[in-house]
Amino acid sequence: MQTIVITMTNTNTLANTERQKYEVDTRCMDCHFNAFDRLLTKHEATYNQRQEFFGYFNLVMARGASLTMAQLYSELNREFCRITGVNNPYAKEKAESNSLSLSLYKKFRTKVLESANPFDMALRLAIAGNIIDYGANANFDVPVTIQKVLESEFAIDHSKELITRIKSASRILYLGDNAGEIVFDKLFIEMIMHPRLTFAVRGLHVLNDATLEDAQQVGMNLVADVISNGYDAPSTVLSDCSEEFLHHYKEADLIISKGQGNFEGLIEENDPRIFHLLMVKCDVVAELLHVEKDSFVVCNNSIIDNS
Predict the structure, then answer these.
(1) 63, 70, 243, 267: least buried by Cβ within 10 Å?
(2) Domain 96-303 has what CATH class?
(3) Chain-centre distance of CA 120, in angstroms?
(4) By C-alpha distance, which of 254, 304, 257, 250 is closest to 276?
(5) CA 9 – CA 31 distance, rounded (Å)
(6) Nearest of 191, 213, 267 to residue 13 by alpha carbon
(7) SS3 at position 171
C-alpha cells in the first residue's frame, strides 16, 4: 500500500460554548484512503491509475483546512471516476442492498404494525438500516444489527421530543443516506404518516449513497415527495446544495437527518429543527457525541452535549 504523509491538526471535540468548524481528523483521512484502496482493487485499477489517484489524494488532503471532509470526498470521488472510467463505483452493492432490504420489508412491516409501539420499532429499524455503509465498513450484517438495535437502549435518546415535533410540524424534510437503508426509512415514514414530508437523496453517485434511481427502485415516491440535494458528496453540505433543496430545507419545520455523513455535514448548524438518527460507526463521531462506538443515537442537533 502506498504511504501517505499528511500533516494536519487532529481535533476530536467541539468547543464547549460555541460550535466551531472542526478540522479534518487524520483518522478520517485513513478511513477514506482505505475505502478508495478497496475500490481501486475492486475495479482492477492498473498500477498507473493507482499512482495517479493517490497522487491526487495527497493534493486534495493537503487542502483539508479549507474544505469539509464531505467536500474532500466529493473531489476524490470525481477524480476516481475520471481515472477509472467507472461512473457508479458501488452500483452492484447498491442494487444488492436495495434487493436485500426489500426482501426484509414485508416481514418487518408486519412486525411493526403488530408491535406495542409501532413508532419506536420503525424508528429502530430505520437506525439499524444505517449499518449499510460501504465507506465506513465493507463488512456488515443487517439482520444481526436489526436484532441488536431492537434490544438496545439509545446512547442518546431524544425520541420523545422527535415524536412531539413530528406531530406539530407542518413540513418535514427527511435527509436520506444509503441505498438499502432507505427501505427502512420508507417503513418509518409510513408509520409517521405525515402529509407533507419530502425525502432528499444525493445529486449524483457517490459511495453507496441513495440517488433518485434508488428511491424510485424501492418505492419511496409512494410515501413521500422525493428530491435530489443537487450535490455529489456523501453528506448534506448546505453551501453546495441546489436551490430547490435549499427551498425545502428553509421551509421545513422539522429536519430528520439520517447517518454519519449528514450528521458531520450539519453538526455545526445550531438548528433545533434537526434530529439525527444514526449508528455510530467510528471513533471520531463517538468522541464528538461522547458515546461508545457501535451505539445508536436519536439526538436533537441544538442540544447535543459537546462538553
Answers:
(1) 243
(2) alpha beta
(3) 20
(4) 257
(5) 16
(6) 267
(7) coil
| 273-302 mean pLDDT | 94
The rounded mean pLDDT for the chain is: 88
Amino acid (1-letter code) at residue 114: E
Instruction: Tell whether the torsion through CA atoms of 274, 275, 277 and 278 is positive or negative.
Output: positive
Q: Residue 20 to residues 13, 15, 62: CA-CA distances in angstroms? A: 10, 6, 20
Domain map (residue ranges) of the chain: 1-87, 96-303
Q: What are the residue ranges of helices labelled H in 85-240?
A: 91-114, 118-128, 142-151, 159-168, 181-192, 212-218
CB 185 within 8 A of CB 126: yes
Q: What is the pLDDT of residues 219-268, one digit of tens each?
A: 999 999 999 999 999 999 999 999 999 999 999 999 999 999 999 999 88
Q: Is 1 a residue whose pLDDT tops 70?
A: no
Asked if the model's pLDDT at residue 2 lies above 70, the reply is: no
Angstrom distances, CA of residue 74 to CA of 137, 206, 294: 18, 7, 25
**pTM as predicted:** 0.89
Q: Residue 3 pLDDT > 80, yes or no?
A: no
Contact between 307 and 16 (Cβ < 8 Å) = yes
Count CB neighbours of 122 within 10 A: 25
